[in-house]
Every structure is written in C-alpha cells, then in structure tokens.
Amino acid sequence: QVQLVESGGGLVQAGGSLRLSCVVSGIRITPYTMAWYRQAPGKQRELVADITTDRDTTYARSVQGRCTISRDNIENTVYLEMGNLRPEDTAEYYCNAQIKFLTRSWDYWGRGTQVTVSS
Fold first, then answer.
1. DSSP character for 27?
2. Which of 25, 35, 83, 102 has the fewest CB atoms lying closer than 10 Å?
3. Residue 85 burial (CB count, 10 A)
C-alpha cells in the first residue's frame, strides 16, 4: 500500500518559515517526479513546486525565491522549505508522486497538511 504522509504544517505569522516533509512508503521515490501542491478554500489545487528524478526543479511564480523543494531518495522523503510566508500562502499542502511510462501516468497523493499564515 502506497502512503504519502505530510507533516510540518501549522500556524505561522507573516514573514515566518515552515518546513514541510512528505514521507513515502510502499514505493521507492527514486523514479518518481515529486511535487507539492496546495489548495486554498474555494480555489483549485495548484502546483507549488516539483523536483524531477534529475533534481531539476520548478516553482510557481507566486513562491519563486521563497520556497525550496528537495528530495532524499535514501530516506524516501520530500521537503518543502518555505520562507517569508504570506497570508495568501494559507492552504492545505499536498505531496504528490508521479511516474510516466509511454502515454500512461501514475499519481499518488498524500492527505495534506494545513498551513495557515496570519497577518
């Protein structure tokens, strides 16, 4: 059974920092592109950052320069360091693992961790 378990969310003041972790079990993350998504109330889920198997990274424009995604293939864990947090960063943050083969793709999701930024 594949499980992605996020942690590290919480309540933080604007300008503060958080480090989110996603521990994966049931698969080895090595061949997967790993990503963090977020969803605020009433909004669609959006990509925050992803990291490929080659450790190439992509960031949403809204978090560029404030977030760093990293992966530890030995510990089977993905991290998201977030700094200079803003109230608009308030959302449920979800970990995602994706692998593609030919025209097919497989996605696994965690249940999320809540980040709340107060002004």
1. S
2. 102
3. 22
